Model the fold of this input.
Amino acid sequence: MSESSVAFLSEEGPSRTIADRLGLPSTFTIIPTYQCTAACENCCFGSNPTIQHRLPLDRLIDYVDQAAGIPSVRLICLSGGEPFLLGNDLTAIIKRASQHGLLTRIVTNGYWATTMEGAKDRLRPLVRAGLNELNFSTGDDHASFVELQTVTRGLAAATTLGLTTVLMIEQGPGRIVDKATVLDHARDFPKLRQRMENGAVHVIESPWVGFNGNSVAQEPGALVNARNLPLRDPCSSILTTFVVTPHDRLGLCCGLPREEIPHLNRGNLLRDRVADVVEEAFSDFLSLWLFVEGPEHILAWAAGKLPEIEWEDLYAHNCDACRAVFTDPRVMQVIADHYEEVYQEVMAKVGVYAALQP
Done:
């Protein structure tokens, strides 16, 4: 099935009306490069130190300016790859976003925090440029390349400088790295430990997803099935966070397997304006369906039409379920054949969401 055959349009057609009513997108993530200091075996983007390609600073600044021109956008996030590899260019991007009055976030593995004073020196220009939040990523794979002591040192330096800090930990059975492990490695930073324990430093433990043919074991209780399906939320990323990729395309979400799903990567930003690609995205019915119901509910609906579609006890992460929606041709065929049966219900939910916006 071709990509165009599943690009369902809402009856309102290509219009900013839906986006305006929803007050979206709220976040713009820019990935300047997939280069990283780590080479995790199961990286969603295949990031590693050998990748050389990156977006030049002038285009990065232009993308910030274009995102700032969308009234609903409130936050610019820099991710990767490893954004700290941009050196002084990273500070320039944060400064430009701050000049537009936007909040700013950087996602990092923390490799640069080799000493406390060195970590503070690296962060101070970013703080002066207006950086608001620093997110650290770790897990068993990450810890092979960036020691937990380095991560906790980076967290401690960031909190000392007043940055909002978040720690994301990959979750799975038999793992070594968890919140308790990180707390143990933070023993030299008692204030950080206290902030982690009382929630001032937000620690998120989330299931991971397999890539490059790898499978990732999951806690049985985390797998979606008919019993816990009502507890599964809509996708909080699709149409809420747009992503500028290192290849000058616009992702419709910040989902982990987004690069594997052509439907979720649009435009050619060397030719197309960001606002125009965003406008078109809000005419895509399938994206709106993911926004109001989430991929697990779509899989369950499709299996109700075609029982051969297997979905129960297979997916812990909603991104994994979303990949199944787009890559299982049986699911896509069911959607193509029957989406009109749920069209009015889905669009009504979109309307309810819009009505609840301030």
Notes: Strands lie at 27-30, 75-78, 103-108, 133-138, 164-171, 202-207, 241-244, 250-251, 265-266. Residues 267 and 292 are 24 Å apart (CA to CA). The longest strand covers residues 164-171.
